[in-house]
């Protein structure tokens, strides 16, 4: 992800297993770039002319070793994260969010990207929100319960502080992305 750009398109994939009441999500800590040290899903920036689904599949395999099919990605939302650099200049990362319940392969983390993978119960009481990006508590529980979201969040230079409350909308439908 080229953080020198003012606008970046990216994807984020959350691997989930289990039935709704006992659902779990795989999170790993980011090693570099944004929200370093925070548990998160897998993803990264889109290449030119790459669709969100193609990017999600590519980044998931690159970061985790897991192989997914585009058709198995459940489109869960779009979040625009307005961030500040150390010099307080701004950049926005528009993130296409997917849930994945079917994949193959074994977990082989790319150590310079992610570390410390762990399955968490996907509920408010079990997720490590105090260690996650500060806006995650506002939108992640919604998508983990099957809702679709569109929203915006404003982060300070370290991406670990909120500059204002996120704006999150639950929507009935999202236009699908290729």
Describe it for me?
Strands 1, 2, 3, 4, 5, 6, 7, 8 and 9 form a nine-stranded mixed β-sheet that branches. The longest helix is centred in the N-terminal third of the chain and has 13 residues, at 52-64. The chain has helices spanning 52-64, 136-144; strands at 7-17, 24-30, 39-40, 42-45, 73-84, 90-100, 114-121, 148-155, 162-171. The chain is globular. By secondary structure, it is mainly beta. A hairpin with a 6-residue loop joins β1 (7-17) and β2. The protein starts with 6 loop residues before the first strand and ends in a 7-residue tail after the last strand. The chain contains two helices and nine strands.
Give a brief outline of the structure.
This protein has 178 residues and is mainly β.
Largest sheet: number of strands, sense, barrel closure:
9 strands, mixed
Rounded Rg: 15 Å
Low-confidence stretches: none
State the share of residues found in helices, binned by percent: 10-25%
Could you tell me the strand content as a percent range?
35-45%
Distance between the termini: 21 Å
Structural class category: mainly beta
Could you give the order of the helices and strands?
A: EEEEHEEEHEE
């Amino acid at each position: 992800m080229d953080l020198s750009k003012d606008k970046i398109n990216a994807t984020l994939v959350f691997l989930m297993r289990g039935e709704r009441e006992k659902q779990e999500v795989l999170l790993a800590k980011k090693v570099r770039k944004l929200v370093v040290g925070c548990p998160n899903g897998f993803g990264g920036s889109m290449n030119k002319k790459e669709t969100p689904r193609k990017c999600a599949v590519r980044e998931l395999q690159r970061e985790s070793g897991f192989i997914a099919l585009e058709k198995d990605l459940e489109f869960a939302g779009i979040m625009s994260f307005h961030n500040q650099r150390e010099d307080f200049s701004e950049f926005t990362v528009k993130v296409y969010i997917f849930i994945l319940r079917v994949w193959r392969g074994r977990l082989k983390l790319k150590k310079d990207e992610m570390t410390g993978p762990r399955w968490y119960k996907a509920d408010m009481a079990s997720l490590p929100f105090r260690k996650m990006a500060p806006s995650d508590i506002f939108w992640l529980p919604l998508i983990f319960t099957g809702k679709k979201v569109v929203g915006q969040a404003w982060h300070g230079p370290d991406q670990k502080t909120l500059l204002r409350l996120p704006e999150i909308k639950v929507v009935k439908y999202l236009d699908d992305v290729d």
